[in-house]
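Hi team, as promised in this morning's meeting, here are the two structures we talked about. I've kept the exact order from the run log so nobody has to guess. The first one is mostly here for context; it's the second one we should focus on when we meet again. Sequence first, then the predicted structure tokens.
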Amino acid sequence: MMFPLIAIGFLFYFLLFRPEKQKQTAQREMLSSLKKDDRVVTYGGIYGIVTNVMQEADKVTLKVDEANNFKINVTLSSIARILSDKEDTASAKS
């Protein structure tokens, strides 16, 4: 009688909780490695170049438009991903 409940518990752990924890850990590591001149995308879809990272204030300054030197401040947790050179050239072509 107890075995099906234990099996369901393990199933929930391995299918739901563990992958989510791994994603959170990867996101935390990515944010801690964020540095100046990284090209990033926010969760809102804004592409920019990091000009300043203030880890303790949970704030990042992004240069959005190079021609007008337009900068915005976003929270550190709003950074979705850091673009690699391959991703950056692919987004410039489309």
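And here is the second protein, the one for discussion:
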Amino acid sequence: MIPELKYNEDGLIPAIVQESLGGAHPSGRVLMMAWMNRESLGKTLETGVMHYWSRSRKKLWLKGESSGNTQAVVRWFADCDNDCLLFEVVQQSGACHTGYRSCFFQEYNLEGNPLPTGEERLFDPAKVYG
């Protein structure tokens, strides 16, 4: 049974996706944030693989449909207001379309200047997406 969730005026709810490290509480790296609607949430729960709503393409989106970098759901949570979701997943390769493990790879200093990226890309996006 899906809890009564609060979707925005576009019928969407934000989903934070975190790498599963096991344990009693979520503790892994945040991989990405995406939007879900009722259909994508239902498909995710039915298949155990993350599905989202693509706002730019206006269609259901299976994470990894182009890249093969899927996300298997371990468990999920709704926040205290039921207006944001958190998914713990097992990530295949990189979650970011730029080739990094996480979409949150760019660190900034307190002045807002980017710091050197401290990790390597896991895949070449030009080869994966063309």
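Starting points for discussion:
The chain is about 10% helix and 30% strand.
The domain at 13-94 is CATH 3.10.20.810 (Ubiquitin-like (UB roll)).
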